Amino acid sequence: MDVFESHANSLIADAAVQDIWQRCLDRIQKRVTSLGFKTWFQPIVPVKLVEKDITIQVPSQFFYDWVDQHYNALIRETISSVLGEGAKLYYSIASEDVEPALREEERTLSQPTSNRYVSPAAPPAQPFFPPRTAFRQADQPIAQSNLNPRYTFENFIKGDSNQLARAAALAVGNNPGGTSFNPLVIYGGTGLGKTHLMHALGNHAIAIGKAKRVVYVSSEKFTIEFVESIQSDRVNEFSYFYRSVDLLIVDDIQFFSGKEKTQDNFFHTFNTLYQLGKQIVLSSDVPPKELKGLDERLISRFQSGLTADIQPPDLETRIAILRKKSEDNRFELPQDVVDFIATNVTSNIRELEGCLISLIARASLDNREITVELAREVLRMVVNESKSPINIDQIQHIVCEFFDIPEDLLRAKTRKQEVVNARQVAMYLSKELTNSSLKTIGLHFGGRDHSTVIHSCQTIHDRITSDAGFKQTVDQLRRRVEVGAH
Ligand code: ADP
Ligand code: MG
């Protein structure tokens, strides 16, 4: 076959896959909402068709997870109906960051769905640590580093709150065992990016060839493996495995608390690696010196390198994270929605991501446009449960401050227009944002009865629908109440 012919063939193949996928899309479009279709199907690119094996490319891991969870059955069914019996679906993930780690992922994901997803059976159990032969040769990379290729420095957003931890992790990833940051301990509250940074560090060290044998393990997993190794009389093997790595990453060391034998084994592992000039990276939810139930000698070892904290992200970082995550998923988020989520979800990044995903989900599944209104609904479900509930007194306080009137006038008999207005707005927000009954609300406003509360809510509701400026005022107040800002 000459060059021309092969080129022509590949063009034909290209046209075929486009055609098949278009036929699939036509069918899918009839069965999902239009927003769902736009969000989750239009960005998919058909890439290859070999007999009945079709490969489609999705923009990101997040996208893949989502499609897999929500539409896998639909896609498979459709492909079978278009290509016939025995059709197989392969996914690939577009690697924006062209990193070896990501390409690796692409390979794994390219397994036929029929292998990966049709059978609900769990994946084959992995040995809890590799058999002796797997780590005999020092120049062989360890098969099970447990590193997640999704966590990289490239997709870790920098901010004041994580600057030190990130810089330290990068320095260590560039030169494991070769800096004075040994051990490197990263501490901070939950959902702030500790695990992400540690994986990024490990992935980076491998990618640039600075470490071959990298192992990531949670302290819980380390403990379980240790106990199992005692039971199966393989403690030596267990110890040998962890003491023969170049870079050992142990997540959430607070869970070593109270487990004396495990701590003892870990102490020796630590010393062995340290003496060999190997790198140790640890994370914890508190600074090492505040770790409870841990042996003093361990704590003093932990403090001998660098301890770096991660703080909750500031507003700018939260906005940057939302932008990046929606961009990565080719999902357009209006600016006011970004601002709204970023102002209201302040605790941690996991929660921020959770809100974003729920928002996309709600919009896509209910076929609704992404607005601040929808974001507010989602937030109420995702976040407010864990926050202390809003109460009527807070609302009164915020409303009075805004309209600049004394709070006790809300409860007084006065019928001055500006007071009536503030009172009605406060009642309306109390009805909207708290679970209080009309009777309770009335009681908080100088013992007014429930019909007065109904009347106030109706009045405000009508004004909101007819007066855009007034609606803005009420929205602004609502936001202040929700944020708890004074
Ligand atoms: P921790 O281990 O501190 O509880 P994780 O590392 O599991 O937190 O982070 C929670 C989620 O937030 C993960 O999905 C992670 O990718 C994401 N995340 C955390 N920090 C950042 C950041 N700075 N940039 C991008 N994503 C982040
Ligand atoms: Mg973690």
SS summary, helix count: 21
Which runs of at least 5 residues are low in confidence (pLDDT < 50)? 96-142
Taking all Cα atoms into account, the compactness measure Rg is: 28 Å
CATH class of the largest domain: Alpha Beta
The H-and-E topology, N to C, reads as HHEEHEHHHEHEHHEHEHEHHHHHHHHHH
Beta-strand proportion: 5-15%
Major sheet details: 5 strands, parallel
Bound compounds, each kind once, are:
adenosine-5'-diphosphate, magnesium ion
Shape: flat
Distance between the termini: 76 Å
User: Domains counted in the coordinates: how many?
Assistant: 4
* SS-based class: alpha/beta
Mean pLDDT: 84
- Helix amount, in percent? 55-70%
**Main sheet strand line-up:** 5-6-7-4-8
What does this structure look like?
The chain has 486 residues and is an alpha/beta fold. The protein folds into 4 domains: 105 residues, 2-Layer Sandwich (GMP Synthetase, Chain A, domain 3); 166 residues, Rossmann fold (3-Layer(aba) Sandwich), CATH 3.40.50.300; 69 residues, Helicase, Ruva Protein, domain 3 (Orthogonal Bundle), CATH 1.10.8; 94 residues, DnaA protein, C-terminal DNA-binding domain (Chromosomal Replication Initiator Protein Dnaa, Chain: A, Orthogonal Bundle), CATH 1.10.1750.10. It has a 5-stranded parallel beta sheet, with helices on both faces. About 10% of the residues have low confidence. Bound molecules: adenosine-5'-diphosphate and magnesium ion.
